Prior knowledge:
Helix content is 60%, strand content 0%. The protein is mainly alpha-helical.
Amino acid sequence: MQNKYLQWKALVDDFLSLIYLSIDGVTEGICSANTAFLLLGDVLDCLPLYQCDVFSFVEENVSTWKSNSFYTAGKNYLLRMCNDLLRRLSKSQNTVFCGRIQLFLARLFPLSKKSGLNLQSQFNLDNITVFNKNEQESTLGQKPTEEEDGMEVEKGEMGNLVHLLHAL
């Protein structure tokens, strides 16, 4: 297993060297700015999730991606690449990595952009949490009665309805 990891690590280092070379090519005017983003996207698409530490390379080069020669050509590539990574990751098991991606996007794109603002002030008002003020009304820790077991209702559905009716 260790040998396979070292092979992957060497391969990833080769890919990163190629991406650095493409970045230098863009700054010298030898190739298009899309080249670096296409290479980076292909590398992240091909690697398994545990090898996506390549994303630290993306994070470290935020100043490069924000430069004039790269930003206009690559902002959509970077956004698509980050969204693809977020889709592949488990939001409950890879919370740190998901957070790193979100922070990278916040650093890359200005927060004053129209797409990052809630201009119409649309909020999710249907998300209601009802709190019991008396311990007697609480169902926490109580076992369901036999009558509730025989019903064909999803667990928690009737309890939520009863709590909402009590709140009214």
